[in-house]
Amino acid sequence: MSVVGRFAPSPSGRMHLGNLACSLLAWLSAKSAGGRIVLRIEDLDAERCPRVYADALEQDLAWLGLHWDEGGSTGGAHGPYYQSERAEIYLQAFEKLQAMGLVYPCFCSRSQLHAASAPHRSDGQVVYQGTCRGMSAQQVADRIAKTGRRPAMRLQVPDEVLGYTDGHLGAYSEHLPTECGDFILRRGDGVFAYQLAVVVDDAAMGVTQVVRGEDLASSTPRQLLLYRLLGLPAPEFIHLPLLLAPDGRRLSKRDGDVSLENLRARYTAGEVVGKLAFAYGLNPSCEPRTPESLLADFSWEKVPKGDICLPEGLF
């Protein structure tokens, strides 16, 4: 089977080095196997993700030499490639899950969940305990009338351990009720959740290999459950270590010094790629490189498994 990888950026701001690392390794992983790359714009929350940022993402990827084979503004056979334009497709999958009797309304706010004595994951996320799971149709109607707001919709998870073998980090599993909990499929404002959208999109776009940051590894059991329930083929998952600032902070789009906007003003594309490849063990030095020049020697075995702190002064 031909490998189909993907870029799936969320255009809530300019890309930072962590986003770039994910894009570079996704491109190298697919292209080194003779595969293809799809560009999908994950702008589910259109207010937070204006099209101007999506356009800038395309320009940044092209500047770096990370060219894609279909998707984005250039289109292709599996469009639309903007999640904000795919709500009807998500609705079909959502209704299929509803017909199975697995979806229920939830009125709990985020602040209520964090204030509750519910268990928390190691990353601080609340494991939902099914507070609203047993509400009757009348109770739901009364709550809507009282609060004036629509509920979110959650998927009830089965009592099982669901695991997979990561292409880089190895075995991972979760006991769904106690380590994952019932999770949201659609927000109260009607926006479909990331978990449902990426499963539907990756299957529809023929993606066979998902490369993303290690912080999303815990999303995989939820997504594998959705693949199974919806009767869709699951891709291979490969999670790469997170890139940290020299002081150990997680990089974010608020860190302007490592945003592509500022990096483009200070370095050539080859310098950015070469330095980043060096940080991930794919370049013996910081010398400038093109993505194509890294293909022949690319191997996941060279990539560290633990988080990577950027050396002081590298960027």
Which short descriptors sum up this protein?
single chain; 315 residues; alpha/beta; Rossmann fold; Glutamyl-tRNA Synthetase, domain 3; 3-stranded parallel β-sheet; 3-stranded antiparallel β-sheet; 11 helices; globular
Overview of the molecule:
There is one protein chain. This protein has 315 residues and is of the alpha/beta class. It has 2 domains: 4-85 and 241-309, 3-Layer(aba) Sandwich (Rossmann fold); 88-196, Alpha-Beta Complex (Glutamyl-tRNA Synthetase, domain 3). Helices cover 35% and strands 15% of the residues. The chain has 11 helices and 12 strands. It has helices at residues 17-32, 51-64, 87-99, 110-115, 137-147, 176-180, 194-204, 220-230, 260-266, 269-279, 291-294, and strands at 4-7, 36-39, 70-71, 103-106, 152-155, 161-166, 170-175, 183-186, 209-213, 236-240, 243-244, 308-309. The chain has a 3-stranded parallel β-sheet, with helices on one face. A hairpin with a 3-residue loop joins β6 and β7 (170-175). α7 packs across α8. The longest helix has 16 residues, at 17-32. The two termini are 39 Å apart. The mean pLDDT is 92.
